[in-house]
Structure formats: structure tokens, C-alpha cells
Design goal:
The protein has eleven helices and no strands. It is an all-alpha fold.
Length: about 270
């Protein structure tokens, strides 16, 4: 009699079933995001917006050196100026995040997604992780290119500008973090709303429209500093605000907005029909 024990052979179906739900959900969301041409184009546009704005700003500063209107003036630049267009690129990143959720509902694909993930939360979490990672890559790559262009174009000119590798790397990472959390916020808000037009209006209004409108209303200005965009942009801008949030405190406020939106959408996802 042999003492050897038989080793069970796992077939393909069993292997797929044994794969963790989160791993499968994340790989599925990566596939959905990367295979749709419009997503790739929009994310590339966001990178070009950031990088291109940095190059154009550099050209503008160089042109001031020969402009009679600036004669006798000292032309200076700071690294933060060259990543300011991240605040416009956030519109594109937010739109990609909104469409990633609403397209599933309009096409009915969400039913298949939730059928394969009965607990539902991995579907929402994977969306947030993948779109957050996409936003991070857009911010890092776009800002790195913009800062690289500014250094290459302004070095050797009479524009007073200095940026170290460490400062450029820090600003690039912070730009990526900002766009990552903006994407996660858009995912959470959209998963609660579900309807594409309403979600786009709500997300873009909160990020872009409401801050300047509310800032003009006396008695409300202090609260405006705690809106997602104005609080979060402290991480990549040095403008003065009434609340005087530090960069990381402002980013923390933005992260709280994203966490709250994601938590609400998770509760609604568990309690209502797909």
C-alpha cells in the first residue's frame, strides 16, 4: 500500500472561484478603463493640458524679456505656477470618473458586474482604486513634464527661476494625489446619483462653479475654503485663504469629502436595487 496522498487538482472554474473578489474586480476595472478609446483620449488630453500649459507659460515669460511693457521689471517664476493647470485637468479626470460609473448603469452592465460580485462593495472599491490610480498617473506625468519643460526653457534666460529635482518630484506627486482624490470623490458622488447628466452637473458644480460663486457672498467665504477644490488645491498652490489651511490639512479636507461620498454610495449600493 502506498503512503503517498493524492494531490487534488484544481480545474479552471475552481481556480477562478478561488481568486479573491477584490483582485478580480480590480483587473476587470483596469480592463474596462483601458479598452475604451474615449477614456484613453480624455486622460491623454488631461496630461497634455498640464504639460502644454507649463510650456506655454514658459514661452510667455521668455517673451516678457523683450516686451517694452515689462522693461526694467524683474521677471520671476515659481514651480507652483507650472502645475496650476492641474486645476483645469481635474475637469477631465472627473468626467472620466463620472462616465465610468454612469456608462455601466445606462448600458445595464452593472447588473453583470454585481452578479459576479454579490457583496457589491468590491465593485465600487475597485472603481475608486483604478480611477484614483489613473488620476494619480495623469497628475504625476503631466506635472513632471511641465516642470521639466519649464526648467529646460527658462534655464540660461534672464527669468529668475529655480527648481530642484526634489521640489519638482514633490510637486508632481502632490499633483497626482490631488487628481487621485478628485477622481475618487467623483466616483462616490456619481455612484449615489447614477444618472449621467445629474452626476456631471453635481460634480462639476461642486468642483468648479460653486467656489467662485459662494466666495462673492458675504458671510459664506469662510465656509468656501472647506469645499473640495479650494481645500485640496492648497497642496499644489500657495494662494491666501481665509481659513489658512496648511497644504496637508487642505488635502485632508478633500480626502474627507471623497471618503464621505464613497461611504454614502456604498450604503446606497447595498440597500437599493441595481
Amino acid at each position: 500500500m502506498s503512503d503517498q496522498k493524492e494531490v487534488p487538482v484544481m480545474d479552471a472554474d475552481t481556480a477562478r472561484a478561488a481568486r479573491p473578489a477584490w483582485a478580480g474586480a480590480i483587473s476587470a476595472e483596469v480592463l474596462k478603463l483601458s479598452t475604451l478609446l474615449s477614456n484613453r483620449i480624455l486622460l491623454l488630453v488631461a496630461v497634455v493640458m498640464i504639460a502644454g500649459s507649463g510650456g506655454l507659460l514658459s514661452l510667455g515669460m521668455i517673451s516678457r524679456l523683450t516686451d517694452p511693457r515689462f522693461a526694467g521689471q524683474e521677471i520671476t517664476a515659481t514651480p507652483m505656477q507650472f502645475v496650476d493647470s492641474v486645476l483645469w485637468a481635474q475637469i477631465v479626470v472627473a468626467i472620466v470618473a463620472v462616465l465610468a460609473i454612469t456608462n455601466e448603469y445606462t448600458s445595464g452592465q452593472v447588473r453583470l458586474s454585481l452578479l459576479s460580485l454579490p457583496t457589491r462593495i468590491p465593485w465600487l472599491g475597485a472603481k475608486a482604486l483604478v480611477l484614483g490610480a489613473a488620476g494619480f498617473l495623469v497628475g504625476v506625468s503631466g506635472s513632471a513634464i511641465a516642470l521639466g519643460l519649464s526648467a529646460a526653457m527658462l534655464t540660461g534666460t534672464n527669468v529668475h527661476y529655480a527648481v530642484s529635482f526634489g521640489e519638482a518630484a514633490s510637486l508632481s506627486v502632490r499633483s497626482g494625489l490631488y487628481l487621485a482624490v478628485i477622481a475618487i470623490f467623483a466616483v462616490g458622488a456619481t455612484a449615489s446619483i447614477r444618472q449621467v447628466v445629474a452626476a456631471l452637473i453635481a460634480v462639476l458644480a461642486l468642483l468648479i462653479v460653486l467656489p467662485p460663486v459662494l466666495s462673492s457672498i458675504p458671510g459664506v467665504r469662510d465656509v468656501v475654503d472647506y469645499l473640495p477644490t479650494l481645500a485640496g488645491r492648497r497642496l499644489i498652490s500657495d494662494f491666501e485663504t481665509t481659513a489658512q489651511l496648511t497644504p496637508w490639512a487642505g488635502f485632508g479636507v478633500l480626502a474627507l469629502w471623497a471618503a464621505a461620498a464613497l461611504a454614502l454610495s456604498a450604503v446606497l449600493l447595498k440597500t437599493r436595487d441595481a
